[in-house]
Amino acid sequence: MNPAKAAGRTAVRSLTGRNPRALLHRAGIAGDLLAVLAATVTAIALRGPVASRLGLVISPFSFDWALALPFVAVLLAFSSAGLYERDAYMSRPLHAWTIAQASFLAFVASAAAAFLMDAGWFEVPRLTFVLTLVIFPPFDLLVRLGVLDRLYISWVRRCRPVGYVVGDSPDARRISERLSMLRGFNRVRDVGGDDPTRSWTEIVAWELDHRSPRDLPADAVFIDSSSLSPREAMGVIGIAQNRGVEVYVASGLLGPLEGSRLLKALFQTPVTRVRRALASSPAYALKRTIDILGSAAALLLLSPVIAVLAAIIKTTSPGPVLLAQTRVGRSGATFEFLKFRSMYINSDDTDHQQYVHELINGNAKPTSTDLQGNGVFKIVDDPRVTPIGRFIRKFSLDEIPQLWNVLRGDMSLVGPRPPLPYEASEYDDWQRQRLEVQSGITGVWQTVGRNRVTFDEMTFQDVMYAMNMGLWVDLSLCLRTIPAALLGSGL
C-alpha cells in the first residue's frame, strides 16, 4: 500500500476515535497553516498580473521573514475565536461565520503590518499580504468544511456520544433544546433534582455510573449554575472529571473565562468549558514571564502617578505612605502585601473581622445596593477610611504598589485576591480551594463580581479561573480591569 495513503487512513482512524478534541486541535492548526501556505504561494504567483491589471508598479519579489506574519496573524486570530476547539464543529454555519470573522481580524493585523512596511521596516511588498489574506478564506473553508468537518461527523456517527444537562430551570431546558439542534450528541439527557433525598453530586454520579450496557457513552455534562449552588456545581464538576467526562458550565459569573464568543453563540447563553482539573498544574513559566514584563513596564509607566499619590497621602493624614499587610497566598504561604495606605493609623478592625466572619459563613446581609439594584457585600462608609483613601479605593489606585509584589514573585497579575490570615482561618475545605492558585491583583471576581456576589460565588469564580487559566483569559481580564478602574466601577 502507498505509505502516504496508509498514513492518511491511520489519521482518519485516530481522529474518529473516542476523544477527537486534541486531534482536531492539531489538525485545525495544520490545516490553517496549509491554507495560509497555499494562499501565499498563489498570491506570489498572482501579484504580477494583479499589479499590471491595477496599474501598480511593484518591486522584484524577495523572500523575507515578514512572510511569516500572515501565518502568525491567522493562528492568533483563530485561537482567540475558539476555532481550535471541538465545539467549533458543532454548527456548520457558525463555523463558517467564525472563520470569516477571524480571517477579517487576521487581515486587519496584516494590514497594520503592511502600513509599517511603508516606512521601510519590511521588504515584502504589501500587495502580497493583501492577496494572501483575500485568497486564504476560501482555501481554509475548503480544508475545514470539506475535510475536518467530515472527519468530525464520522466520529459523531461512530461514537454516538450523549450530553447530560444538569439542572431544573428554564435555562437548563433551553440548553437542552439547543444541544438537540447541534451536531455533536446522539442524544441529550436531562438530569433533574427531583429527588430531595439525594444531592446533585449523588444524582449525577448515579446517572453516569448506572447506564445499562446498551446505553451510549457519556461525552459531556452541561451544568446550569442557576439550579445549583456554587458548592454543588463544583461537586458535579469533580464527579464528571473523575469519570473522564467533559464539563461545561452555564453561568453569568464567568464571562472572562469563556475565552471567545464562540461558545456563547453556539449555546445562546454564557457557557464556559472546564479545561482542566484543579489538581492539574498549568505551565507557569509563560505566566511568570508575562508577570515580570508586565509589572516592570507598569511600574515604569505609573511612576509619576506613584510619586503624586505618595505625596498626597503623606500630606493629608499622619502615618506611612505604604501599608504592608501579611496575606495568605498560594498553598497557604504568607507574604508582605503592599498597598497605598487608605485608612487612619491604629484603626480598630473589629467590625471588619465580624463582617468577614459572617460573609464567609454565608450569614452576611448586603449593606447597600448599587445603581442596578444589586446587593453590595462590604462595609459602606467605613469610618477607618480617610477622604483621600475613599478616592484611591474607588479607582483602585491603592492597589498599584502590588505590582512590586508581582515583580518579586509573591503574586501574579491575574489570580484570586490574597486573604488576610483571619479571613483564611475561617475557610472550610471547599473555600480553601481558592488558595490552590497563585494570588493576583485582578481576576474574575475583581472584574465581574466585586462586592456584588456572595463569598461562595467568589470562591466559585476563583476556582473556575484556576481550572481555565491561560494566556487569552489573563489578557481578557487585564483588559477588563483598565476601564473598571478608570470608571471606578470595580468597587
Question: Please, could you describe this protein's structure?
Answer:
The protein has a five-stranded mixed β-sheet with strand order 2-1-3-4-5, sandwiched between helices. The termini are far apart. With 491 residues, it is of the alpha/beta class. The protein has three domains: 3-158, no CATH class; 160-273, AF0625-like (Rossmann fold), CATH 3.40.50; 284-486, no CATH class. The protein has 18 helices and eleven strands. Helix 2 crosses helix 3 (69-80), helix 4 packs antiparallel against helix 5 and helix 10 packs across helix 14.
Main sheet, how many strands, which sense, barrel?
A: 5 strands, mixed
Question: What's the overall geometry?
Answer: flat
Class by SSE composition: alpha/beta
Count the helices. How many? 18
Helix content: 40-55%
The low-confidence runs, each spanning 5 or more residues with pLDDT under 50, are 1-17
The overall number of domains is 3
Cα-based radius of gyration, to the nearest Å: 26 Å
User: What are the secondary-structure elements, in order, as H or E?
Assistant: HHHHHEHEHEHEHEHHEEHEEHHEHEHHH
Number of strands: 11
Strand order of the largest sheet: 2-1-3-4-5
**Mean pLDDT over the residues:** 84
Strand content: 5-15%
Distance between the termini: 67 Å
Helix-strand layout with pairing:
Blueprint (H helix, E strand, L loop, with lengths): L2 H13 L5 H34 L14 H12 L11 H26 L8 H34 L2 E5 L3 H12 L5 E5 L8 H10 L8 E7 L5 H13 L3 E5 L11 H6 L3 E3 L10 H18 L1 H14 L5 E7 L5 E7 L9 H11 L7 E2 L5 E2 L10 H8 L7 H7 L3 E3 L6 H4 L15 E3 L1 H6 L5 H14 L2 H16 L5
Helix pairs in contact: 2-3, 2-5, 3-4, 4-5, 7-8, 10-14
